[in-house]
Amino acid sequence: MNALTKLIAVEMKLFVREPVSLFFVFVLPIGLMLVFGLPQRGSSTQGAGQHGELTFLPALALALTIGMLALFTLPMALGVYRERRVLRRLATTPVHPGLLLVAQVVVNLVMGVAGAVVTAIGVRFLLDQSSPANMPGFVLAFLLGVACLFAIGLLIAALAPSARAAQSVGPALFFPLLFLAGAWLPRDQMPTVLARIGDYSPLGATVDTLAASWAGDSPALSQLLVLAATAVLGSALATRFFRWE
Fold first, then answer.
1. Which family does it belong to (predicted)?
2. Where are the domains of the chain?
């Protein structure tokens, strides 16, 4: 077993021992669907507006999971490691501290995939709706959404001066992004400019591309490109400004 594999195994154990993180990944999405989705269980027709779309709720639940992993869990964990000088100590060993960052990303990605599977199963059996109809488009939208949001999370970890700051910046960014995605107010009821910003915001584009793929349509190319561009830019900036101590 090489160093990276060992780090991934350790980080996975630490993750599953944290009840709050498991709540974000598995309990919250299912709870969201049970509370808001049961009234439309088994329905084959959609209502008016964004919130009336049958695939909006499962796409929002999945984007919620990815967003919380990216903006809550990832920056806080890396901030704690830097604050406790774990990254600095690793730099004095044969194990490069960059491997710990890779391990963190891998673990959060694995948990995000697990959350996606649980969400899809929940939609199928709890809401009596079909699984994603356009699976290639769904996988592409999911991976680009993860890459985009994780890049933002890494950038927060790079710029935040402390673990407490990272723990504050993530939620401060997450909830406005959730609003722009249409979680509370449907985007079709927002002012035109605000709705257009929401269409291409990280969570808004993730929700839309996931929902379109779930319904069997092709996700919008412009939104996929925005997710990809944000992932590249965020990763580049995080690499440029990341501090080991």
1. Belongs to the ABC-2 integral membrane protein family.
2. 3-241
